[in-house]
Specification:
With 231 residues, the chain is of the alpha/beta class. Helices cover 28% and strands 13% of the residues. It contains 10 helices and 5 strands. It has a 5-stranded mixed sheet with strand order 2-3-4-1-5, covered by helices on one side. β2 and β3 form a beta hairpin. The structure holds heme C (HEC) (4 copies). The site of one heme C (HEC) has 20 residues, from α6, α8, α9 and α10.
Length: 231
């Protein structure tokens, strides 16, 4: 007996599950696992879905004394190794500036827009009024299992400090498309680290792809980001 495990929290994993159910003769059994139906194929393969993150799939062994064949997305498994700050998920508005800054881990290469405010107050205030500042909020109501995919563009630092999976997991100091998404990592600046003043079209295109931003026009969009553009 082989057991295929898919995770409710992993979009890649869910896509594989949908494909298996569509393309192969899996039938629903009377059993469930963590509340999700278990499917079976010719009594040879079981397809089960866990609500948990696949990184923590050890718990399955106690349930299935079988040769387990487990789907873990490599993408997610690798992310576990990356540095991931532990920051309580509190809404920004409930925190004072001091409290926000106190929550930024010393090891973090990204220091957050709130750290730039002290010296670049005008840029900060203008940025707060842009859609970039609210980009994480925009996706808060989308299905949780899909949020990680969105957060690559709708937050700052995805993949650099570990992969946050849901909106709640985005460290409070990295919500929205922040200064550092365009100017680069701020740790050590000013002094040791110089910020990129020049922000090229390529930076915007990381997120403003043809699919996600069909009306993107570089010069027109530059007018609306809240920074002074040199002519
Ligand atoms: C302690 C004050 C201070 C903080 C905090 C600070 N900066 Fe600066 N920034 C400066 C100074 C001074 C300069 C000019 C000298 C230099 O380039 O280092 C500068 C220059 C820049 C420039 C280049 C501007 C130009 O005209 O060349 C950018 C872009 C920039 N900062 C962005 C940021 C961002 C983004 C953050 C937060 C991640 C940040 N800064 C945090 C003081 C600061
Ligand atoms: C890290 C990803 C990312 C980068 C880099 C980025 N953007 Fe954006 N941008 C977004 C997202 C996401 C939105 C939508 C925000 C929302 O409404 O939730 C957006 C929205 C905007 C908007 C608002 C559009 C409107 O409908 O009013 C402008 C203007 C904009 N971006 C300009 C730029 C420019 C110019 C650059 C490059 C200098 C850039 N962006 C770089 C992700 C990014
Ligand atoms: C490749 C980057 C990228 C990904 C991935 C992405 N977005 Fe976006 N999204 C953008 C950009 C850029 C904009 C701004 C488009 C514009 O105004 O030109 C945007 C705009 C939006 C808007 C419109 C906001 C407004 O103010 O009108 C919504 C809603 C949205 N995205 C939701 C999502 C959701 C939900 C997901 C995940 C399923 C997602 N996006 C994934 C880049 C992305
Ligand atoms: C969407 C990308 C983007 C974001 C987000 C962004 N900037 Fe900029 N910033 C630019 C671009 C583009 C320029 C103009 C570069 C040029 O033409 O010289 C610029 C210029 C600057 C400059 C030099 C000119 C000036 O306005 O004084 C500073 C300082 C700066 N940004 C700081 C910040 C800070 C601080 C934040 C966050 C609060 C921020 N930027 C957010 C893209 C961005």
């Amino acid at each position: 007996m082989r057991v295929l495990v898919t995770s409710e929290q992993d979009i890649a994993s869910l896509t594989i599950k949908e494909h298996l159910l569509e393309a192969h003769a899996f039938s629903k059994t009377d059993d469930t696992f963590e509340g999700n139906p278990i499917y079976s194929h010719d009594d040879e393969v079981l397809l089960i879905t866990t609500n948990r993150d696949m990184i923590h799939c050890d718990h399955l062994e106690s349930h299935f004394e079988t040769e387990a064949f487990i789907f873990c997305s490599r993408h997610r498994a690798e992310s576990a190794k990356l540095y991931k700050p532990k920051v309580a998920p509190l809404p920004e508005k409930d925190l004072s500036e001091k409290e926000m800054i106190a929550r930024i881990p010393k090891e973090s290469p990204l220091i957050g827009a709130i750290s730039c405010k002290r010296c670049h107050e005008v840029n900060y205030r203008n940025w707060l009024k842009t859609k970039h500042a609210k980009a994480t909020q925009t996706i808060a109501t989308s299905p949780r299992y899909a949020q990680e995919e969105c957060l690559i563009c709708h937050a700052t630092g995805h993949g650099k400090i570990g992969e946050f999976v849901t909106v709640d997991e985005v460290p409070v100091y990295l919500r929205g498309v922040q200064c550092e998404a365009c100017h680069g990592e701020g740790k050590g600046h000013p002094g040791k680290g110089e910020m990129e003043r020049k922000v090229t079209l390529g930076v915007c295109r990381n997120c403003h792809t043809k699919d996600q931003s069909p009306t993107f026009n570089y010069l027109a969009y530059l007018e609306k980001i809240g920074c002074k553009i040199s002519k």
